[in-house]
Design goal:
Blueprint: H1 3-20, H2 26-34, H3 40-49, H4 57-63, H5 69-73, H6 79-82, H7 85-103, H8 109-123, H9 132-138, H10 146-171, H11 176-185, H12 191-198, H13 202-214, H14 226-242, H15 250-270
Helix pairs in contact: 1-10, 1-14, 1-15, 2-3, 2-7, 8-10, 8-15, 9-10, 10-14
Protein name: SalK
Organism: Streptacidiphilus monticola
Pfam families: HTH_67
């Protein structure tokens, strides 16, 4: 792996927990309920897509690529009958401020200011062509709150990488179900965490696995064949390459990683993020 894609991978590992804690902390879930949304997953999809606008199930499934369309359809477009996208976005950002105010108390203001400025500078180098979800979050005006600015910058960077990951998967002919199955087969995550959270039924999972076996990508035990391993290696390499826009300013990226990694490690150690999760997030080095 060349220097820029490797740096892009390290940036994701260091910054992802700063974004992903929003899915596990109580404050965002409480904010979703208070604004009128029904249940965790309606809050998840409406909150994640609030920057895009009041999209329906089809667009929501395309943007939240790994999820079963039926799971998305149970939340969208119904969510927008309970709360507008603008209200959901406002409540989410307010919850982020409370959440990070609680979780990042040990962080010195000077470190917070430096890290936030660096991540925003990296966002400014990103190319958003074909990256609808990242572009939508990049369009959210930067607020006055330093904590929310930090989360927003981390969010844009992770969705930029995520949109690129979808491009890499689609290039290899992998849909959301096949992506999940091969992710599990690669040993990065458990079937329970992926299938349960993403909403695929046992029948869908088995049919998807059978299709991948016919293609020579899965073996009889559900592991990756050599061809499957090569495919997943290409996907991850392409994902890193496509994320390299974010680390064009290598010195700023390196400093951001050095500042973000210990914060993210602390979030993982504290239990703010579960050690086993469907993201397959490694502990930042």
């Amino acid at each position: 792996m060349t220097a820029q894609p490797l740096l892009a991978r390290r940036l994701w590992e260091a910054v992802e927990p700063l974004h992903a804690v929003v899915y596990f902390a109580p404050e965002p879930a409480e904010a979703a309920r208070e604004v009128g949304l029904k249940g965790y997953w309606m809050g998840y999809f409406a909150g994640r897509l609030s920057a895009v606008g009041p999209v329906g199930a089809g667009v929501g499934s395309a943007l939240c690529f790994a999820f079963a369309p039926g799971k998305v359809a149970r939340a969208l477009p119904d969510a927008w009958s309970f709360a507008t996208a603008e209200a959901v976005l406002e409540s989410r950002l307010a919850a982020v401020e409370k959440m990070l105010g609680r979780l990042l108390k040990p962080l010195r203001p000077s470190e917070l200011d430096q890290l936030t400025g660096l991540l925003e500078a990296l966002v400014d180098t990103c190319d958003f062509d074909g990256r609808a979800l990242a572009a939508a979050w990049a369009d959210v005006p930067r607020p006055d709150s330093l904590l929310v600015r930090l989360w927003l910058a981390a969010t844009v960077l992770r969705e930029h990488r995520g949109d690129g990951h979808v491009m890499a998967l689609a290039r290899e002919g992998l849909g959301g179900l096949a992506a999940g199955i091969t992710h599990v087969a690669a040993g990065a995550v458990t079937r329970e965490s992926i299938q349960g959270s993403r909403g695929w039924t046992d029948e869908e999972w088995e049919l998807g696995s059978a299709k991948l076996r016919r293609k020579g990508l899965l073996d009889a035990e559900g592991g990756l064949t050599p061809a499957g391993q090569e495919l997943r290696t290409r996907v991850e390499a392409d994902t890193d390459r496509l994320a390299s826009h974010a680390v064009i300013r290598a010195e700023a990226a390196t400093t951001a990683i050095a500042l973000a990694a210990p914060v993210s490690r602390a979030l993982l150690t504290s239990g703010a993020l579960p050690p086993v999760n469907p993201i397959g997030l490694p502990r930042p080095s």
